[in-house]
Known about the structure:
The protein is mostly helical. It is 85% helix and 0% strand. It contains eleven helices and no strands. 28% of the residues are buried. Mean pLDDT is 87; it is low at 1-9 and 270-279.
Amino acid sequence: MQPFTSEKTSEKEKRAFIKYFEIIFSNASKLISLNLIYFLFLIPLLCVSIYTICILFNISPEIIQSVYFMHLAVWITESVPLPVVLTLFVFSAIIYGPLTAGFTYCIRNIAASKHCWVSDMFSKAKTNFKQGLVFGLVDLIVISSCVLYLASNTSMLGGSGLITFRIAQILSVIVTLIYVWIRFYSYTIAVTFDMKIKDIFKNTLIFCVLGFFRNIVAIFVSAFIIFTFVSTPRVDIVLIAVLIFSLCRFTAVFSTYPVIEKYMLKASLTYDSKAETDE
């Protein structure tokens, strides 16, 4: 066995970097199709969320006008009758988790260079509906809690009270960041293995540690994609509609799936193989 060297690690990282772009370009049409469908179903949830954030953080009209997608989301929310907005928002919030599970299944297959149909997103959303619903609600609760903490008015606080609240705000950001890491694994495990929700969360917490550096890479690359797409004048809505969700999810799955494959998938196959041999 040859000794492990940093040169080998560098070569492996280089191959992964090239493979990342090769898979994206060879599956561009499929990634765009998946993103478009996912985006269409989440439009009500996105519009209401952006509208609420604009109000909570008192974002000026000038800034809203400068970000076309934000301006469009606010305009849609204010233009559509409230009962219709609320109905569509609830529907979008309910299907968000299951649809994300189906979406992740397709992205996982693409990242693993396996075949998948775009229609698989709906069949897997149906198969993983209960787990997806739970994960989706947890997503919304965690993110909403963090936003509310950050947007809270602290003008009435002073001294130790203000310091305590600032610490709570920082902790909420940290918890949300950790949960984003958990989210890198939760949906992928849910569509790959037949496991209970509590066992999925237990494994994701472990993988947050085992895949620490991969999580960091996924976070920074995803943040770069989001910032680049959202800050691109006039075409931001097009980029969001056709690519942003697929690219971010692909980045997360591509970075973290090897951890799941190493510690769960291969271990499971080894165990099954050993059991068959013993029989």
